[in-house]
Amino acid sequence: MSNKPVVKYLILGILFFLPVAFLLLLYPSTNNYNVLDVVKEDVLDISNLSSVANSDVVLKDHITVLGFLGSDPESKIIEASNLKELIYNKFKGFKNFQIVMMVTLDSHDRTSRLIQELNKYSEHKYWHFVAATDSDINKLFNSLRTSLQLDNTLATNSVFVIDKELNQRGRLDDRTKKEKEKETQVYPLTAYDCSKVSIIKNKLAAEDMRVLLEEYRKSGRNKIDSSNRRAKDLNPDNKTDEKE
Predict the structure, then answer these.
(1) Fewer CB under 10 Å: which end of the chain, C or N?
(2) What is the average pLDDT across 6-33?
(3) What is the pairing mode between strands 192-193 and 155-162?
(4) CA-to-CA distance for 156 and 134, rounded, in angstroms?
(5) Could you report the per-residue pLDDT of 221-238, keeping only the tens digit for each?
(6) Predicted local distance difference test score (pLDDT) of residue 217
(7) Alpha helix (H) ranges present in the chain?
(8) Rounded CA gap, 185 and 168, in Å?
(9) Which residues cross the membrane (predicted)?
(10) Quick check: 138 and 153 in contact, CB under 8 A?
(11) Is 132 strand, coil or helix?
(12) 99 forms bridges with which residues in the sheet?
């Protein structure tokens, strides 16, 4: 009896089952993706601060990079510029993404000058400066998980990531590979120092923000959108100075 029919069916079987096996191997990798750790729940929303007059800016239902510039925002021009170049310009196309900076009520002129500096080449529509009393700024800051403290101007170089459900995101274990091999003590990353380009570029931009946005995209709770399409959603005149 010839072995040709056996070989024929064997080849057909391999050709049929090989793609199926590949898809089965691929399925877990596409569904079991890493998520950015929740390091603190129930962050206070800006809408709960009695001194905030701008009711259009809230944290709920937004992916927010939250910062504190206090009474002298101009002194944080380097930190703000790093955030602009490495975070805002990269992620402004994601719907519901925003940067929120808390400033004191008496910092209006200094805030205006910083805004003018940031807006030299394009308007930052999704970057908000929110003025509040010293007490309310402290309340918001104290609702975060951090070992940092605000300075005497109620400012810090670091920013915090808040998701749509008012959870603070970060890393519960920020050890390097070598530190894990040496079994050094676990330490978290709950804030990102904007004065250090390596942290903003390599940790926040290249990894953590992308992981968080991918988490929302895969769950169907967030859409990646071009800046022009997003601008059309918010601007009835369909005008925008931002490029895709």
Answers:
(1) N
(2) 58
(3) antiparallel
(4) 14
(5) 654 443 333 433 333 333
(6) 86
(7) 4-31, 77-83, 89-91, 108-118, 134-142, 177-181, 197-198, 209-219, 227-234
(8) 22
(9) 6-27
(10) no
(11) strand
(12) 65, 127
Contact 161, 203 (CB under 8 A): no
Q: Kind and range of the H or E element at 131? A: strand 127-132
Going by the DSSP 8-state scheme, the letter that residue 99 receives in this structure is E
Max distance between CA atoms of the chain, in angstroms, equals 96
What DSSP string describes 27-64? HHHHHS----EEEES-PPPGGG-TT---TT--STTSEE
Tokens 């002129």 identify what position?
A: 109
Residue in the structure block whose two tokens are 């800006």: 46
* pLDDT exceeds cutoff 70 at 242: no
Residue type, 215: E
Q: How many CB atoms lie within 10 A of CB 104?
A: 24
Q: Which residues contact 215 (CB under 8 A, 6 or more apart)?
A: 33, 35, 36
